[in-house]
Amino acid sequence: MKGIRTFICVVTMLTLRTLASDITPLVFGGFTEGMPAAFGDFNSDELTDVFVVLENNKAVEILLAHEEEPLLRQAKDRLRCVFSNSHITSVVPGDFDGDALMDVMVTTTFKRTEQDTDTTSLTNVYILWGGANHLNCTTDEDSPVIQMIGQPLAMDYNQDMIIDLFGQNKKKERMFWIFNKDRSVAHTAIPMYDNISREELSRPHAHAFLDLNHDYMADLFITTPTQFEVWLGHENEPKFTYNNTIKHPENSKIIGQSLFVDVELKGSMDLVTPVCAEQQSNGNCKGAALMVYSEGQWINLQVNFKDDAGNLWQFYLKQGSRYTNVITLRSGDFNMDGYPDILATLAQENVDHPQSFLLENVACQSGCGKFKRSYAIKWTALSPFRNGTAMAAFFDFYQDGILDCILVTYNGTHYQAGAFKNSLDYDANFIKVMVLTGLTNKHSQMINGRVGKKRRTYGTNLPGPSISYKTTTQEGNLRHGVSPQMPQSAHFSLNLPYTIFGLGRTPNFVDSVTVGLSNNSRCWTQIIPNSQMVVIPWPVNQAWKWKAQLFVTPSKLILMSVAALTAVCGMITVIIGVLHWKERQEDKKERLSESHRFHFDAM
Ligand SMILES: [Ca+2]
Ligand SMILES: [Ca+2]
Ligand SMILES: [Ca+2]
Ligand SMILES: [Ca+2]
Asked: Rounded to the nearest 5 degrees, what angle is found at the Cα of 160, between the Cα atoms of 124 and 53?
């Protein structure tokens, strides 16, 4: 009786767990004060940790990811640094000294409050050097390694897998800051090569480091107050040369943060920009639209911002607010159909109540011209998170290849971290690819990996590689998708250090996966779906030596088949056992009666 009760209890718990989409306690335990600022695997255990800002933007802390709940926890020896005199504006993890261990770049301003919108104040850059399990907090807040105007873009200028920065110096000149193995020298500043003087850079900006012309060399996308510039990357000096300019979309008062997405799933990156045709008197957005730049022109994706009740929504924008002081989009394939979807924070007109929504990539129904895709706002996709959210970003909590969401709820006074579990109602396949720097550390110890002891795999958070795949769908069509790895880093862009491609229900092998960086590329063929591929591109210029490790995640369907098979086997064993026992009993009886007969005959 007790056994049955326990069984019922377990079944109910399991059902509830799969139905519940708000998994905040399972993810954060009780600690929801940290505001997500960046993602990266700090302690090299292949689980993506979350870098948060807390204590009113005065402290940065790393929440380490675990396989058991709570999934994100503060470390025993807290990985936390405090900046008592300044205000943290961004956090960018990466290896800034080439020792293969992740460091953390923090930018701050000396302005005291979030409401202070003085944009002339300088940005201070600090590097917190990382050991495998500790973080060296900066001792001198008054001497940042760099002072600049606006936030920097993390990139790799000289292809040595040590992260460098791009931005503008105090004189408003465009500069690259090159980091090296010697922490004491810190960096070299190189002005951007140019033959004519260019516009000042935007603040905030949506600069990006990704390959735009398919030569596997990351290029530079620069945002200025009136236009976008594309600079092509080269192996030799000058590292970047001006290529072309894209004017901002016409009739747009406000330009949000641009994003690069393979909207049509054609194997090329489209520039997607949120805009507002007008600005409300309080500075908020009016006339929201999603624009895509395709073949030399801007196309309005005709997103319907009216909900089912007829209310009109806008991109939420509020000066001096947390996360929503710029319009930021984040992309990822939420429903695993291959087409990248978008997360955005909206608000109804004249209502000061932000809410994040999923914009699903759908086939364009009418009036689309030559662009075949559009976005449809899924008003209930993130429920039960319906009572105010300032931010939503994609994150894979259970390493099952399904993108969940990490959110920040906001009730008008208080911000809190939240977690949403994406429960897909069908068994979709995926492929997850992560490109590491490939740097190694001689002092590396063995750690308990997911399968026994193993060496640490080092150096996540490499900006710039392009990752693409080709596969054949069940209908026999060729599908080609591409995604850049970590093209943006500033202004809480919250890029994941890996890429997940949804494959829909295609159970076939993926024909090929191609990874390209620093003018080199390597293609791997016949990849098993539902596998996680870790690429170690070392040596950088000898692509044939690059390695790929595959971890296969069994899909729900396979697990269910295994369970069913085990149950059937068990049942058969029991039946065989019973039959066997019966037969033996009968044999016994027969033998007994036979012996009786024998005695009888003998007489
Ligand atoms: Ca390092
Ligand atoms: Ca470098
Ligand atoms: Ca390129
Ligand atoms: Ca999708």
From this structure: 35
Residues 6+ apart with CB under 8 A from 65: 41, 45, 47, 48, 49, 50, 71, 72
- Tell how far the Cα of 471 is from the centroid of ligand 3, in angstroms: 24
Q: How far apart are CA 408 and CA 391, in angstroms?
A: 5
Structure tokens at 437: 């720097």
Would you call 197 helix, strand, or coil by DSSP? Answer: coil
Tell how far the Cα of 163 is from the centroid of ligand 1, in angstroms. Answer: 10
* Interval between CA 100 and ligand 1 midpoint (Å): 5
CA distance 71 to 47: 10
Ligand positioned closest to the Cα atom of 403: 4
Q: How far is the CA of 137 from the centre of ligand 1 (A)?
A: 13
CA of 152 to the centre of ligand 2 (A): 14
Over residues 511-532, the pLDDT tens digits come to 999 999 999 999 999 999 998 9
Half-sphere exposure of 543 (CA within 13 A, CB side): 12
Q: Enter the tokens of residue 288.
A: 């929201």
Ligand nearest to the CA of 212: 3
- The number of the ligand nearest the C-alpha atom of 500 reads 4
State both tokens at 123. 């940005």
> Phi and psi (nearest 5°) for 401?
80, 0
Q: What is the pLDDT of residues 382-425, one digit of tens each?
A: 999 999 999 999 999 998 899 999 999 999 999 999 999 998 76
Range of lowest pLDDT (230-239, 472-481, 557-566): 557-566
Q: Helix (H, G, I), strand (E, B), or coil: what is residue 497?
A: coil
Residues contacting 376, CB < 8 A, separation 6+: 303, 304, 359, 360, 362
Pairing of strands 373-378, 355-363: antiparallel
pTM given for the model = 0.87
DSSP-assigned states of every residue in 211-224 = -SSSSSS-EEEEE-
Quote the ligand 1 centre to 190 CA distance (angstroms).
22
Residues 6+ apart with CB under 8 A from 63: 28, 31, 34, 49, 50, 51, 52, 72, 73, 74
The pair of three-digit structure tokens given for residue 154, joined into one six-digit string: 């993390």
